[in-house]
Amino acid sequence: xxxxxxxxxxxxxxxxxxxxxxxxxxxxxxxxxxxxxxxxxxxxxxxxxxxxxxxxxxxxxxxxxxxxxxxxxxxxxxxxxxxxxxxxxxxxxxxxxxxxxxxxxxxxxxxxxxxxxxxxxxxxxxxxxxxxxxxxxxxxxxxxxxxxxxxxxxxxxxxxxxxxxxxxxxxxxxxxxxxxxxxxxxxxxxxxxxxxx
Length: 197
What we know:
Blueprint: H1 15-23, E1 30-34, E2 37-41, H2 46-59, E3 67-71, E4 75-80, E5 83-87, E6 91-95, E7 103-105, E8 110-114, H3 120-123, H4 126-134, E9 138-143, E10 148-154, E11 160-167, E12 172-174, E13 180-182, H5 184-187, H6 190-193
């Protein structure tokens, strides 16, 4: 029986079967459920974790008390037309009132995904589409390999519209969901953004 697929129509599972799969993990990988398809994501790299840590440090003081900045893995349960969806974004700004014992119920304020060689197609494809369909208003994508960040906002047609893109030391001023100035180089952490000595 095939459990983990790259094709949504190859093997689909319900929520109960998904939870049973996660109860017997095969290693340190993360499990997500996208419209009934089980997605397997390898453990993140140190660079990936540096970006997430920098964003948490940057965003936490800027968020109002009724929001929370959280790093993954944390289950985000989304309602989509195609089936059960439980995703684990790399970072999110959550509504405190929607936090549950297991994760976040419904669309967060912001989702950030940090691209890697094994996840970039999914993060810019099916996951991005699922976040849009579920009504996540803000979606940011950080690409460490190209040292870039792209800021998307949900448009009136329920699809993401690119609002900003920056590379290297370029700076981008974001006004929503929080006011912040972002620089891709700065997100790679002090050790990576400092000039060589």
